[in-house]
């Protein structure tokens, strides 16, 4: 018998859950913004993590690798072909040695080849491998999501903020709201849990042509990465230290007033607040040519992770039933979204 289900949040996990559940049930998908994929699902590094990034959490690496087939089946047309993807281990301050990293890749089953990459400064890099990984075209990903929703039986409700009051209308409610999960549960504080909230900046830069089609990640500590930004001529930079403008552990993110207009607002040219210079300064010793970067703009969002996981940096995908009607879906890796949706189907069947 069909159930009536509300999915809250039209990020990638909410959309995927809605599409999968709508094959068997009646589904309403609530989104408070005027479009889909406007928060963290639309503001991230857009790398389809297969596990290379997580040498301290084999569980995260294995779940990422496991999720690849299902993700590719649904969203394969959004994957960018022809990029070169490199992972480097820093000589100093890395939590993982080169030897440990190679052992990790072999144990997990991640393909790699040790290479010399001219863009990096070998005096500060101990190991560079070419990895079998791909990037995501965010524009194409959104197009696929929109088309799949339009062809489905999902009732998409944009500009509609769901509250706890809707529970009576549905058999089940699924929260795919990431940093906003506790907001929905305000009148049920015992169902809330603590998270670590990070107000992050992703910077978009113009780089010399020798960077074209190349993704470079420096591991495993307070380092950085640079990736082609979809099919644009620009690049996206992440930074473990300088991307984070503020961080707190608790039920809700603490957001300074000057950031409120910047959050989830897409690419902001000439942002009034930016750590661009710190991004570049910290990266130059590993990738000298990054000094030629020109700042095109920045994106800001709230990244949410489980607290006190610095030792392993684990990013699990967790589907939980928190009471008789409410499920939560929490994850830090896009690649596991289809697997999570299938878990939901099995729980609700």
TrEMBL record:
Signal peptide: none annotated. Gene3D superfamilies: FAD/NAD(P)-binding domain (3.50.50.60). Residues 4-60 form the FAD dependent oxidoreductase domain. InterPro entries: FAD-dep_OxRdtase (IPR006076), FAD/NAD-bd_sf (IPR036188). This is FAD dependent oxidoreductase domain-containing protein.
């Amino acid at each position: 018998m069909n159930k009536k289900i509300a999915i809250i949040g039209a990020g990638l996990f909410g959309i995927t859950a809605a599409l999968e559940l709508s094959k068997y049930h009646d589904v309403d998908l609530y989104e408070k913004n005027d479009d889909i994929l406007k928060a963290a699902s639309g503001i991230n590094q857009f790398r389809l993590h297969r596990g290379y990034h997580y040498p301290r959490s084999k569980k995260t690496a294995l779940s990422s690798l496991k999720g690849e087939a299902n993700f590719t089946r649904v969203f394969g047309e959004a994957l960018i072909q022809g990029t070169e993807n490199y992972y480097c281990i820093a000589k100093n301050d890395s939590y993982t040695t080169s030897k440990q990293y190679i052992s990790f890749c072999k144990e997990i089953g991640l393909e790699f080849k040790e290479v010399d990459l001219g863009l990096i400064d070998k005096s500060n890099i101990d190991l560079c491998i070419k990895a079998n990984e791909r990037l995501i075209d965010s524009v194409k990903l959104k197009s696929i999501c929109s088309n799949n929703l339009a062809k489905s039986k999902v009732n998409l409700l944009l500009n509609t903020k769901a509250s706890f009051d809707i529970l009576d209308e549905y058999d089940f409610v699924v929260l795919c709201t990431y940093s906003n999960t506790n907001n929905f549960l305000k009148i049920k504080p015992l169902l809330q849990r603590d998270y670590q909230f990070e107000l992050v900046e992703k910077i978009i830069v113009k780089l010399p042509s020798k960077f074209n089609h190349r993704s470079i990640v420096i591991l495993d500590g307070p380092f950085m990465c640079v990736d082609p930004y979809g099919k644009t001529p620009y690049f996206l930079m992440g930074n473990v230290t300088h991307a984070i403008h503020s961080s707190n552990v608790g039920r809700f993110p603490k957001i300074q007033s000057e950031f409120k207009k910047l959050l989830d607002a897409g690419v902001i040219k000439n942002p009034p607040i930016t750590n661009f210079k710190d991004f570049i300064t910290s990266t130059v010793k590993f990738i000298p040519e990054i000094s030629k970067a020109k700042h095109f703009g920045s994106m800001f969002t709230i990244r949410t992770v489980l607290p006190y996981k610095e030792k392993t940096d684990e990013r699990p995908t967790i589907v939980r039933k928190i009471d008789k009607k409410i499920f939560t879906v929490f994850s830090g890796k896009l690649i596991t979204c289809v697997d999570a949706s299938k878990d939901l189907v099995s729980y609700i069947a």
